[in-house]
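Exercise: predict the structure of this protein bound to FE2/S2 (inorganic) cluster.
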Amino acid sequence: MSFTKQEVIDIIRENRDELDPKLRLRAHEERKKFYGNSVYVRGLIEFTNYCRNNCKYCGIRGGNVNVSRYRLTKEQILECCRTGYELGFRTFVLQGGDDPQITDDEICDIVSAIKSEYPDCAVTLSIGERSRDVYKAYFDAGTDRYLLRHETADNGHYNKLHPKEMSFEIRKRCLYDLKDIGFQVGAGFMVGSPYQTDENLAQDIMFLQELQPHMVGIGPFIPHKDTEFKDFSAGTLNMTLVMLCITRLALPKVLLPATTALGTINPRGREEGLLCGANVVMPNLSPTGVRHDYSLYDGKICMGDEAAECISCLGKRVETVGFKLDFSRGDHCEM
Ligand code: 5AD
Ligand code: FES
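Solution:
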C-alpha cells in the first residue's frame, strides 16, 4: 500500500512509545505473503576502511586519525568468499569506505574474479557515490546489486549529517542511475540520527515509495566516540521497528535486513526486526583481524566471531522467532 506523508507521521506518533502489536502483525503477514518464513543470508566483506568522505556520523570517516586503516587484497577477498561459499553463502556484499586508492579497474577485476569462480553467486557492491559510467562498468563486470543508503531524504537534514561537498541531490542521482542501469538497488536510512524529525522519517518513506528500491537498509543511529555526534543519543529499538513495519507495508516485496546496528542496541534487536517484516541477515565474512578497524559506530557486535560461529548463532536466533535461514541467492521477488 502507498502511504501519504501525513499517514506516516500519524503512525509514528501513535507508535512512538510502544509498537502496536497490530502494526507488527500486518508487517509480518505482508512479508509471509511473498517470502514465507525464509530469511536470506548475505556474506558481508568489509574490504577497505579507507575513506575520502567525512560523513559526520561515521566512525571510519577520512578525518578520523584514530582509525588504523586496512585494505584487503583481491586474494584475501577471494579467500573470504571461499569460506563463505563453503558455509553455503550465495551472496557476497563487498562494502567499503570510498577508498581513493582503489581504481575502478581493480573493483571490476575483483568482481569478475568472484563471478568467474562462483557463477551461482550474486555480488553486491557498497562503496559509495560514482559517476553513471563507472556504475555501468561495475555492472558490466558482473555486479548484480548495489547498496547506497540515502541516509535522509530531506535536503536540510542531509546537510546537517554531511560535509558541504555532499548533497542529497547527488545521492538521489546515483540511486536513479543505479536503478536505470539494471542493478537491484538498496537505499536506506538511520533511525534517530541527530536532528531527525518525524517529518524527516515520513519523507524517507515518501522517497522510498518514489524510488521503489529492491532493498532497504534501516538501522538505528549509534554514536561513535571519534565523531562530532558522540554525545547524541542512539536511535531506539522501538522506533526502528516502527520504520521497518511501515517500510514492509509500503514496499511489500522489499528485501529488508535485520541490521547489525539493530542487534547492537538490543541483544534481541535482530529477532524483533524479523518479526516486524525484516527478511535478510548479513553476517560478517571479513577476517576477524580487521573487524575492529571497521567500526562505523561504538559497540558493534560479532567483532570476534568467525563466519562459521556467526552463521550458527544466527541460525539459532532466527529459529527462535519461527524463521529459517535460506541460503539461496535471494533475489528480489518479481511475482
Ligand atoms: N550509526 C548507525 N549507522 C551508521 N552508519 C554509518 N555510521 C553509522 C552510525 N554511527 C550506516 C550508514 C551507512 C551504513 C554503511 O552504515 O547508514 O550508509
Ligand atoms: Fe554474529 Fe551472533 S550473529 S555472533
